[in-house]
Amino acid sequence: MSRVVIKSPAEVAKAREAGKLVAELLAMIGEHVKPGVSTEELDARCHEHIVKVQKAKPANVGYYGYPKTICASVNQVVCHGIPSPNHILNEGDIINIDVAVIKNGWHGDSSRMFFVGEPSPEARRLVETCYDATVAGIRAVRPGASLGDVGHAIQTITEGAGFSVVREYCGHGIGRVYHEEPEVLHYGRPGIGLKLKPGMVFTIEPMINAGKAATRQLGDGWTVVTQDGSWSAQWEHMVTVTENGYEVLTPWPDGLHGYPAIG
């Protein structure tokens, strides 16, 4: 864990600038998530907004060969769903839109869940539980706490609701580099793992399944789905460790958050 990069206040400010762009982007795209819209259309809107409005660069395009600007993960897709003109959203679907940008050499990364029309009670409970778990993980961040504390907080909320935490994918450090140390697991034991220090910047992005935690990757080499076909949800925020707690670097401008931006 010696490779974890501690950011200076000036560097955190640059990460904050990039983080606010992805937060604003996700707030913008929400009004376009509706039945009859293709995930390709959502991708095109996000790409245009990043390039023309934000004057930034889409971080996902070409990253290890990924072909699109956003990941659009619908229903049983856990993560890395590739947008397609053939994937039309239907009433009752749930979708995670995950996007990252590069601004002045610094990365911003966040994701949100959206309901397509009116969700079923169980789909709503899954999405809201995942949100509560994400918030619990964020609130565990403070100097001297461990990554195990963060993971344990997420796991406790998730499993207490009868859902499961995906093990194969985790949060990550972020800054000038898209994915860097540390790995942020969304399960764990209190007091175990890396001790948090001011200036660390990383994502918290739990994926939870309505059924079992097991996943599989499709033949496109990207799309990950639940093995049992159950639905999955994910939320993601960038946070930095402050002298007294945390700061969310991707606060949503439309106010959709049940946590203080600074805690």
TrEMBL record:
Recorded GO cellular component terms are: cytosol
List residues binding a divalent metal cation 2.
109, 172, 205, 236
The record's listing under SUPFAM superfamilies reads:
Creatinase/aminopeptidase
Entry EC number(s): 3.4.11.18
Q: Which residues bind a divalent metal cation 1?
A: 98, 109, 236
Family annotation (NCBIfam families): met_pdase_I
State what this protein does. Answer: Removes the N-terminal methionine from nascent proteins. The N-terminal methionine is often cleaved when the second residue in the primary sequence is small and uncharged (Met-Ala-, Cys, Gly, Pro, Ser, Thr, or Val). Requires deformylation of the N(alpha)-formylated initiator methionine before it can be hydrolyzed.
Protein name listed in UniProt = Methionine aminopeptidase
The source organism is Chromobacterium alticapitis
